[in-house]
Amino acid sequence: DLMKLFGTDGVRGKAGDFLDAITVLKLAKAAGIYFRKHSTTKKILVGKDTRRSGYMIENALVSGLTAVGYDVIQIGPMPTPAIAYLTESMRCDAGIMISASHNPYEDNGIKFFDNHGNKLNTTCEKAIETIFNNDELMQNEQVTGRNIGASKRIDDVIGRYIVSIKSSFPRDLNLSGLRIVLDCANGAAYKVGPTILQELGADVIVVNNKPDGFNINEDCGAMHPEHIGKLIREYRADIGLALDGDADRLVIIDEKGEVVDGDKLIGALCNYLNEEKLLRGNGCVATVMSNKALEDYLSSKGIDLFRSDVGDKYVLEVMKEKGINFGGEQSGHIIFSDTAKTGDGLASALQVLALILKSGKKASEVLNPFELYPQILHNMKVIEKIPLEKIKGLEELLKPIREKGMRDLIRYSGTENKIRLLLEGKNKKDVEDSMEILKSFFKKVLWIES
Fold first, then answer.
1. Angle at Cα 310 formed by Cα 307 and Cα 312, nearest 5°?
2. What is the chain's Cα-based Rg?
3. What is the pLDDT of residues 135-151, one digit of tens each?
4. Is 101 a catalytic residue?
5. pTM of the predicted model, to two decimals?
6. Which residues fall within 8 angstroms of residue 32, CB to CB, at 6 or more apart?
7. Terminus-to-terminus CA distance in the chain, angstroms?
8. Which of 53, 101, 151, 434 is catalytic?
9. CA–CA distance, 322 with 337 (Å, rounded to integer)
10. Helices H, strands E: what count in the chain?
11. Are the beta carbons of 183 and 210 closer than 8 angstroms?
12. How far is CA 406 from CA 92, 107, 303, 400, in A?
C-alpha cells in the first residue's frame, strides 16, 4: 500500500516520524520534477514558521529541489499568506510553506503554492504523489554538473509583504489613538505583525513574540484567545488580535476582553464591505458549520450566503465559482481575495480595524451584529460508516425538523469512526427535543460503540 502523503491541507504529520528528513527530500524532488514541466523561472520560494523542526525540513527541501535543478530562495519565518503573495510577486514557479498551522510544535507540514500563489488543487497533489512513488523516474530525473540548483537566503523580502498588507488599509485612515494587544502565538508573524500595526500608528502591546522553536501555539494565539482578555482590560486596550502559528487565521477579542464569535465577525465584515461598495457578487461564502443566524442576518441585508465544506480551500473554491471576494470560516480563516490569496490574519485584522474606526463605536458593539441561534453538536462513535443516503427513514425523520426552520448537518468524521450530529434553530427547546429524536434514531440504525 503506497503511502498517502497529502491530507486536507498539504502534507502534515509528526516531525521526525511521518514527516522525516528522507520523506521530505523525496517529496521535494517529486515536487520539483512536477513544477519543472511548466517552469518559467527555475526558482522556488521556501518559507517557514518558528518550529524547531523547520530547520530539518527546510534543508531537506532545499536539497531535494536543487537535486532536480531548481534554485531556491529561502526567506525564513514568514506568514503562510506572505509565501503565497511573494511567490507570485517574485516570479517563482512555486512557493512552499513549512508549517503545521495551529498544531503543537511536534507536528510540521508542507504546503505548496503555484506560480500565482494559489494552493495546489487535489489533481496537482495527486500528480506529485504519483511521481514520489515512481522510484525509477525519481532516479532518472536527477541532474548533474552545471544543472544542479543553487540556494540563497534573503532577509529583505519582509518589506515587500509589509507594503502589500498596508496598502489594503484605507488610505484616509490611520491607527493612531488605537491601543491594540497583539498575540503572535510565538509564530510566523512575530516580526511582521507588530511592524505593520506600529507603522500605521497604533499603540501596540505585543505578547508571545519570542519564539524558541517549541512554544508556537502553546497556550497562546488564536487557539487560546481567552488569555489576552485579561491584558486588554488591564491596559484598557480597544481591541485584541490573536493570530495562529502561521498567521493565516485571526481571532478578535473586544475591549471587554470577550472573544468575538467567528460567525458574528464574518457578518459584521461582510455588511461593512457591502456598505463600502467593496463586496463583489453580492454574496459571502462560509462553511456548513456556520450558524443559521449568520445566513438570516445577511439575507436581511440582501446578501446571499453560500456554504462550502469545512476547510479554507473549499471556501476559496466556492468564492471563485460564484465570483465572490469575501468568505471565511468561524474558526478565524477570513479571506479577502482582493488582498490575499488565502486567509491572512493580518490583512483581516486591518479590515476589522477599519470597520471599527469608520463606525466610531466600540469593538463590542460593532462586532455583535446579531445573536446566534442555539446549536447542539453531538458526536457518537460508530463501528461502521454506512452511507447516509442508504439509511432508511432518515429523510422522513428530518422533514418535520426542517419544516420547523431548523438546520441540520449530519456527517461522518473524516479521521475517526464517529458520526457528527449538528442541529440549530431559534427555539432552544425544539433543538433539544429534535436532537433526542435523532440520537435514538441513529442508535437503532447504526452500530454505535457503547
1. 90
2. 23
3. 999 999 999 999 999 99
4. yes
5. 0.92
6. 44, 64, 65, 67, 68, 69, 70
7. 32
8. 101
9. 13
10. 15, 18
11. no
12. 48, 39, 20, 9
What does the DSSP assignment read for 371-436?
PPPPEEEEEEEBSS---GGGSTTHHHHHHHHHHTT-EEEEEE-SSSSEEEEEEE-S-HHHHHHHHH
pLDDT tens digits, 224-282 = 998 999 999 999 999 999 999 999 999 999 999 999 999 999 999 999 999 999 999 99
Q: Tell which residue, 221, 181, 182, has the closest CA to residue 331.
A: 221
Residue matched to cell numbers 447516509: 388
The residue to which cell 425544539 is assigned: 430
Rounded Cα–Cα distance for residues 367 and 361 (Å): 10
Q: What is the DSSP string of 101-165?
A: TTS-TTEEEEEEE-TTSPBPPHHHHHHHHHHHT-HHHHHHT---GGGS--EEE-STTHHHHHHHH
CA 239 – CA 181 distance, rounded (Å) = 7
* 3 state SS for 208-241: CCCCCCCCCCCCCHHHCCHHHHHHHHHHCCCEEE
DSSP code of residue 19: B
Report how far residue 375's alpha carbon sits from residue 432's, in angstroms, rounded to the nearest whole number. 9
Query: Which three cell numbers, joined as nine digits, stand for 20?
Result: 522525516
Those residues with Cβ within 8 angstroms of residue 67's Cβ, 6 or more apart along the chain or in another chain: 28, 29, 32, 142, 143, 148, 149
Residue position matching grid coordinates 512513488: 133
Q: In 3-state terms, the chain is what percent helix, strand and coil (to 5)?
A: 40, 20, 40
Task: Encode pLDDT of 387-436 as tens digits.
Answer: 999 999 999 999 999 999 999 999 988 778 899 999 999 999 999 999 99
C-alpha cell at 273: 464591505
Q: Are 421 and 415 in contact (CB under 8 A)?
A: no
Scanning the structure block, which residue is given the C-alpha cell 440520537? 439
Pairing of strands 203-207, 179-183: parallel
| 177 backbone φψ class: left, alpha, beta (φ>0; ψ -120 to 50) | left
Residue 131 CA, distance from chain mean position? 27
The answer to whether the CB of 292 falls within 8 A of the CB of 223 is no
